[in-house]
Design brief:
Chain lengths: 637, 255, 213
């Protein structure tokens, strides 16, 4: 199958406009005849549901949590980018586009990224109109800050809770549509399968998490906005319920999965402190604006940080990257932290941490200024670690945070299955091999508010959709398969809990497919995961029954998918014989230990097609063409 | 040592509310939680207990949780009679075991309110909050067609106050801790967030009336200014927001 | 008038009624206390104050009807709120602790309110619905407060009133929307001050009489 990105031709700035004109429209009176399913209520799913309903479509929206207000977009702290140039510092749509392409290590699609930069400004307008309480200057205009290494101030923020505020904006728009009956909301539902009729996505199978009933829902198109797969690593900054199952089920039904090996490891997280640990907590990257990262110069130096004199500290980011210093992109910062710890210079009890020190900033600006900027973050840090960052340097270590890979989509955000659209973190489209800070919120909302409402119309207007009902064999077969699987999991009655398996999977992934990978390690991981998969289906212990509220069962299904998906990640990582962005293979690095891209052979999207449980997936390639930027080796020196 | 705090292990006796379903009688059951590291979060402690229950072929304790970083609002339970436990400004997932001592007895109960039906054990149905938001907790703007974001200046103080109110995570601790199971802090926070911003003013009157009506219909109690909600709110939202709701309601209803 | 019924019938509406009538009673208490102070001026001063009051004639009747109306509204809406609150949590907690928000006043509002209501009836039977021919109000009061049991009841009741007002006063402002970080501390202070003045002002009178006689 030839992958067609459907990116329109013509000059970059005109592509989206041209495409909008070329897309077929659905007559307003006809919109109400269409049913659309949206799975997920984060920024992408929430905004898409609301906007599609505003246009007149009948929307059925699903979420795992008890309320659409809880999706993990809510945890984003730092901010949202837009090319408003309110700071008058030379920002533009083109610059945001360029920074995003470059930050993604030239592994994303030009047309998509440019569109993202274009609609970024509309997002801010939209959110302000909804009542998002962005930070303001004294004059009442919007405040901006520089974030994640950007050299312009283009980040809009609401304290350290930008994701929460944007999500509440989308949730309120969604609530308005629920009230008028255009959206039917299904909470506490797990999507367990995608149903295809005549090759088109026509519905889903869900499990009602309250009473365990298996339900079918029919629609004319299905939109997945189910987030990323970071929890494959067990420990990540993702929420506990974040999972890959919906996307993975779609993959098994024929949607290609693109670049699964691209995982973003965020540099500023609170280090792991025990085996019982259930998740990792991110400290906003904005801390790096004022905090200085260092480790002791001498390996094994276990003195209290206060007792280590300046001359024996290694401010390794500042030394190595004089022009960006502590503000290098996430992948670079993370990798260097690992490097220092590998050299034995890590700090803390586990030796897997580096210092993030605010002493100089406090000396320079005063405690009050620092408290105003980061007070809530310091408080959060102290709550978790019982250390006071005003006095002792914070300890940080990288953790899995975001996944750039996802289901392959074309310019319309449609997957390789007609009628299946994928938004937000669940798709692969805009961040290439590495995502810049404050860009995830931008993408989620861009997809939901300003892309899908138009492109889905093009599909619905231009496609002949047969009449389908839940009695069709495809639905019955899907329900049967789902029920069989649940029955099987419950009947194994083994000796290991689901969490136990998940933890082991996480260890394998982190060890061999984490921040730094090697060809050998990946090969080993593949075997280990295969063994784990076999053991899971023989030795897992799931409590309770299928017809009740059963969190053990919910997890079991998700972990079973994570294990299988882990194999796909490793397969992709093995196939990409280069280093780029969130995929760093030690076998492909420069002499200075920087990622070594291979643009000649790997300037493409790797899209994987499911070929049965027993077979390796089929590889498909979407070549990336760069007409507007020159591919350079990223350098932050 | 660089760590100032030192972790240790403690043993606890838990008394946990177990209830199979909404219409079934529940009761407190006793469990031992042994070798609990004081670095654990409260929910991680429950994870450990649950792992053991599962391995012993017993039903694990059902509890809601998701982000485990204090922002999604999914978790919450009464711990020794306090919503989200004894620490101020803390959600249950951010409560760490270092605040407990060896041999403590810990009583864990679900949020209790007529408006929050128990689904199982510590899991309650908070959809009443969603219904209240659906009644008017929004500004009616559709995507597209909005003016440039800087067209309406918002005084910094108003934006800050709006943000204070908007920090609500919808966890339900206000209702759970209120002696009257009132939802006034939740509603007050949302009405305040939107009434403080110029964008929210056109709908302010309808919003206040509709949201209060829905709140009453959902079966929440009446505020008697006990201020327990403010004291227990994990985001420390002030009851000045309730006063603002009262003002908005009076304005909307009588003027 | 549907809109008015809707507003008043809502939870906030009922509380507004509580607040307004409650503040009305605070004003009344203040006036009552000021009047009672004439007792310290001696028998004649007190009797002339009473006479002066009675000379108001129809105005007094209007005021009395007003008070009765206020009392009815305050008691009725208070009862409705109390019952609604009981219903809002059908299953109580096995363990419930205060996070520090509640005060003695707020915690006991319905109960102090009920006791004060009983007291008011008792008080009116003692001093209002009595045969006042051939005697003066001072005499009646003097007689009553020569009995230590009466004095005990009155002092206890005044402590109840003080406790009730200590929460009720600031709470009324909060309910009417008057809460601002700038002046709320003042209102809260005033609330405590007022409850002390009312409690001690009224409460000391019976003791004064007891020792006088």
């Amino acid at each position: 199958m030839q992958l067609d990105s459907k990116a329109p031709g013509g000059p970059l700035p005109e592509k989206w406009d041209k495409h909008l004109f070329e897309l077929k429209l659905v007559n307003p009176a006809n919109k109400r005849k269409f049913e659309i399913i949206v799975v997920g209520t984060g920024l992408a799913g929430g905004s898409a549901s609301a906007t599609l309903a505003e246009l007149g479509y009948n929307v059925k929206t699903f979420c795992i949590q008890d309320s659409p207000r809880r999706a993990h977009s809510i945890a984003a702290q730092g901010g949202i980018n837009a090319a408003k140039n309110y700071s008058n510092d030379g920002d533009s749509i083109r610059r945001l586009f360029y920074d995003t392409i470059k930050g993604g290590d030239y592994r994303s699609r030009e047309a998509n990224v440019y569109r993202l930069a274009q609609v970024s400004n509309n997002i801010i307008d939209q959110c302000v109109a909804q009542g998002v309480p962005f930070a303001r200057e004294y004059g009442g205009l919007l405040a901006n800050r520089s974030f994640g290494g950007a050299q312009v101030s283009r980040t809009f923020y609401a304290r350290g809770q930008t994701g929460q505020q944007l999500l509440i904006g989308a949730y309120s728009a969604l609530s308005r549509q629920i009230a008028v009956g255009k959206v039917t909301m299904f909470t506490r539902r797990d999507m367990l399968d995608l149903v295809l009729v005549n090759g088109k996505a026509r519905g889903i199978v869900t499990r009602n998490l309250v009473n365990g009933s298996i339900e079918t829902h029919v629609a004319d198109a299905v939109v997945l906005a189910t987030g990323g797969y970071g929890n494959t690593f067990y420990l990540s900054t993702n929420a506990m319920a974040s999972n890959v199952s919906a996307a993975f089920n779609a993959y098994k039904k024929g949607a290609f999965f693109a670049n699964p090996c691209y995982t973003q490891i965020h540099p500023t997280c609170i280090p792991v402190h025990g085996t019982y640990q259930s998740k990792l907590t991110l400290m906003s990257e904005s801390l790096r604006n004022d905090g200085r990262v260092w480790v002791p110069k001498n390996p094994g130096d276990k003195r209290h940080p206060g007792q280590i004199p300046e001359s024996e500290r290694d401010y390794y980011l500042e030394n190595k990257y004089p022009s960006f210093g502590n503000l290098v992109p996430r992948d670079v910062a993370s990798r260097n932290a690992k490097l220092q710890c590998d050299l034995g210079k890590g700090v803390g009890e586990t030796g897997l941490a580096v210092y993030l020190d605010f002493q100089d900033a406090i000396r320079r600006d005063g405690k009050a200024v620092i408290a105003k900027k980061y007070g809530n973050l310091f408080q959060m840090y102290e709550k978790i670690t019982a250390d006071n960052p005003y006095e002792t340097p914070m300890m940080i270590y990288p953790a899995v945070h975001y996944t750039m890979g996802g289901l392959w989509v074309d310019y319309n955000l449609m997957s390789t299955i007609p009628g299946l659209f994928v938004l937000g973190e669940a798709n692969f489209s805009d961040h290439g091999a590495n995502r810049l800070g404050a860009s995830a919120l931008m993408q989620g909302l861009a997809d939901g508010y300003f892309v899908i409402p138009y492109t889905i119309g093009g599909y619905l207007a231009g496609t002949k959709l047969e009449k389908v009902s839940a009695d069709d064999t495809a639905f019955k077969a899907a329900v049967e398969a789902v029920e069989m699987r649940i029955k099987k999991m419950l009947s194994i009655g083994g000796k290991r809990t689901v969490d136990d398996f998940h933890r082991q999977l996480g260890n394998i992934m982190w060890e061999y497919c984490g921040m730094a990978r090697t060809d050998n390690g990946l090969a080993k991981a593949k075997d280990l995961i295969a063994d784990l998969q076999v053991e899971f289906w023989e030795n897992v212990l799931v409590s309770g029954s299928g017809s009740q509220f059963n969190q053990s069962l919910e997890k079991a299904g998700r972990v079973a998918d994570f294990i299988e998906f882990g194999k796909l990640m490793v397969t992709d990582a093995m196939a990409r014989k280069e280093s780029c962005g969130g995929h760093f293979n030690e076998d492909y690095q420069t002499e200075e230990n920087e990622a070594k891209r291979d643009d000649e052979n790997f300037c493409h999207v790797a899209a994987w097609e499911y070929a049965g449980d027993e077979n390796e997936p089929n590889f498909h390639k979407e070549a990336l063409h760069f007409e507007n930027v020159e591919l350079t080796q990223r350098s932050y020196k | 040592m660089t760590q100032q705090n030192s972790s240790k292990n403690i043993n606890l006796t838990l008394k946990v509310w177990r209830q199979v379903g909404p219409n079934v009688k529940g009761r407190l059951e006793t469990y031992q939680a042994n070798h609990i590291s004081t670095d654990m979060s409260f929910l991680e402690m429950l994870d450990v207990v649950n792992e053991e229950l599962i391995l012993n072929h017993r039903d694990p304790i059902a509890f809601d949780h998701d982000c485990r970083e204090g922002i999604c609002g999914m978790c919450g339970a009464m711990v020794n009679g306090r919503a989200h436990g004894p620490e101020k400004g803390t959600t249950l997932c951010q409560l760490h075991m270092r605040h407990f001592s060896d041999q403590d007895t810990v009583i864990i109960e679900p949020w209790r309110s007529r408006a929050f039906r128990i689904i199982k054990d510590l899991v309650v149905d908070r959809s009443a909050f969603d219904k209240i938001i659906q009644a008017g907790g929004y500004i009616s703007v559709s995507a597209g067609g909005t003016p440039d974001a800087n067209v309406i200046p918002v005084p910094q103080e108003a934006a800050e106050k709006a943000m204070d109110a908007a920090a609500c995570i919808g966890c339900g601790a206000c209702v759970a801790s209120c002696p009257n199971a009132s939802a006034m802090l939740f509603v007050g926070a949302k009405v305040s967030h939107l009434a403080l911003l110029p964008q929210g003013i056109p709908e302010a009157a309808i919003r206040a009336l509709a949201m209060v009506k829905k709140m009453d219909d959902c079966g929440f109690g009446n505020c008697t200014n006990e201020t327990e909600c403010e004291a227990e709110c994990p985001k420390e939202i002030s009851i000045t927001n309730i006063a603002r709701l009262n003002r908005e309601y009076i304005k909307a209803g009588l003027l | 008038m549907n809109w008015l019924a809707d507003v008043i019938g809502s939870s906030i509406g009922k509380k507004m009624l509580m607040a307004l009538t409650g503040l009305g009673f605070c004003v009344f208490l203040f006036g009552h206390l000021a009047g009672n102070m004439t007792i310290y001026g001696g028998k004649d001063a007190f009797n002339s104050y009473a006479e002066h009051l009675h000379s108001l004639g129809p105005l007094l009747t209007v005021a009395e009807i007003g008070l009765l109306l206020f009392a009815t509204v305050h008691v009725l809406s208070g009862t409705l709120l109390f019952l609604g609150n009981l219903k809002a949590r059908p299953q109580r907690y096995a363990m419930k602790k205060s996070a520090g928000g509640r005060t003695v006043g707020s915690r006991t509002m319905p109960y102090t309110g009920f006791l004060v209501l009983l007291f008011v009836v008792f008080h009116l039977m003692n001093f209002h619905f009595v045969d006042k021919t051939n005697t003066t109000i001072f005499q009646i009061v003097n007689n009553a407060f020569s009995d230590p049991i009466y004095v005990g009841i009155y002092v206890a009741a005044m402590i109840m009133v003080g406790i009730h007002v200590s929460h009720g006063f600031w709470s009324a402002f909060q309910t009417l929307g008057a809460n601002h970080p700038k002046y709320m501390p003042f209102i809260k202070g005033l609330s405590i001050g007022f409850s002390l003045i009312v409690g001690m002002g009224f409460g000391f009178l019976p003791i004064y009489f007891l020792f006088l006689s």
